[in-house]
């Protein structure tokens, strides 16, 4: 086995753990950030700060980003995935809980399969993938049905409905951006591409905040400590560590497989909410989470436990040998 193969084999589960766990906690971090920042100002600070930190580090190492073509490609990806996908989540969490938001955008894998026609033959050639996705969706329905936070104080029901629609649109924007990134990769290093995506997404978020009049009446000195802590988590963990892991996974794994983080994120969000914010969970939620986990396992099982032809031949030979020696003795 080559050293690079071993390295990638080790990096893949670590990267999946990053997007599964960190992005689950991110939904809760957004709710903390919203206690002091309007949604698109929060997103703007989050993305722009992370992008400046990354590009500053890369520039200090001697890397240059002077290709307008690459800036354009990364701008499209950043605006779709970050400003559209994540920024709309921040807006939606004004009217729904963190757990509800995580569940609402968990339709990501289905949008990936519906839009990514080029890989339809691959997705449906492995029977475990559609079965796992459908099972995961059933678990999400049960999970949503058992949600303990079915209402939010002082929020009109029509606004909550609009918020869920916007969250669904954010999932579509995320998928479109992810597929664009996979099919139109920029020529820079992965880190440089991500830094450009973050910077453009941050500027776009600030522009949206301007059109939404979020800057009027906003005072940075009035932001509570909890909101600053939420923002710091979003910058360093959500927008650097997890986002780098996500973009890298898109380059080495099928998009629909990478998108299974949307199944795990609600689980992590509920657990984090229970520990940090004293939110409770009930039996239906637990059953839903179990079904989701089984669905994700089925979706990924052939990728992590794929056997070579030689190994399959050895197994078949061992099975035939076991069948022979286990047959009852029959006298002539």
Written overview of the protein:
This protein is mostly helical and 332 residues long. It has one domain (9-326). Helix content is 77%, strand content 0%. The protein is built from 14 helices and no strands. Helix 1 (3-33) crosses helix 4 (98-104) and helix 4 runs antiparallel to helix 12 (261-276). The model is unreliable at 1-6 and 325-332 (pLDDT under 50).
Structural class, judged by helices and strands? Answer: mainly alpha
Weakly predicted, low-confidence segments = 1-6, 325-332
Helical fraction equals over 70%
E-strand count: 0
Mean pLDDT: 82
Q: How many distinct domains?
A: 1
H/E element string?
HHHHHHHHHHHHHH
Percent range for β-strand residues:
under 5%
Q: Tell me, briefly, the overall form.
A: globular
Determine Rg (CA atoms, Å). 22 Å
Subcellular location: Membrane
Protein name: EamA family transporter
Domain EamA: 21-143, 163-300
Transmembrane segments: 12-34, 40-59, 71-91, 97-116, 128-146, 158-179, 191-211, 231-251, 263-281, 287-305
């Amino acid at each position: 086995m080559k050293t690079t193969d071993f390295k990638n084999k080790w990096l893949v589960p670590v990267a999946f753990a990053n997007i599964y766990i960190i992005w689950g906690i991110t939904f809760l971090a957004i709710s903390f950030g919203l206690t002091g920042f309007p949604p698109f100002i929060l997103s703007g600070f989050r993305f722009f700060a992370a992008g400046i930190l990354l590009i500053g580090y890369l520039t200090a190492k001697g890397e240059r980003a002077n290709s307008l073509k690459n800036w354009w490609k990364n701008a499209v990806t950043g605006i779709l995935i970050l400003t559209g996908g994540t920024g709309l989540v921040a807006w939606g969490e004004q009217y729904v809980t963190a757990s509800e938001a995580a569940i609402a955008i968990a339709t990501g894998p289905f949008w990936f399969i519906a839009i990514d026609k080029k890989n339809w033959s691959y997705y449906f050639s492995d029977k475990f993938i559609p079965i796992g996705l459908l099972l995961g969706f059933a678990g999400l329905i049960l999970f949503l049905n058992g949600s303990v936070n079915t209402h939010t104080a002082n929020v009109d029901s029509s606004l909550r409905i609009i918020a869920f629609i916007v969250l669904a649109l954010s999932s579509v924007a995320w998928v479109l951006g992810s597929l664009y990134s996979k099919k139109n990769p920029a020529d820079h290093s992965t880190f440089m591409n991500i830094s450009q995506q973050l910077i453009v997404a941050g500027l776009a978020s600030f522009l949206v905040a301007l059109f939404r009049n979020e800057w009027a009446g906003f005072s940075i000195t009035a932001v509570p400590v909890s909101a600053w802590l939420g923002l710091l988590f979003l910058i360093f963990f959500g927008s650097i560590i997890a986002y780098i892991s996500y973009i890298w996974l898109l380059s080495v794994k099928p998009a629909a497989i990478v998108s299974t983080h949307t199944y795990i994120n609600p689980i992590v969000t509920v657990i984090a909410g229970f520990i940090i914010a004293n939110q409770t969970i009930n039996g239906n939620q637990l059953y839903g989470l179990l079904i989701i986990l089984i669905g994700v396992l089925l979706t990924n099982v052939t990728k992590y436990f794929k056997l070579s032809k030689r190994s399959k031949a050895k197994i078949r030979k061992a099975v035939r040998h076991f069948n022979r020696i286990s047959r009852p003795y029959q006298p002539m």
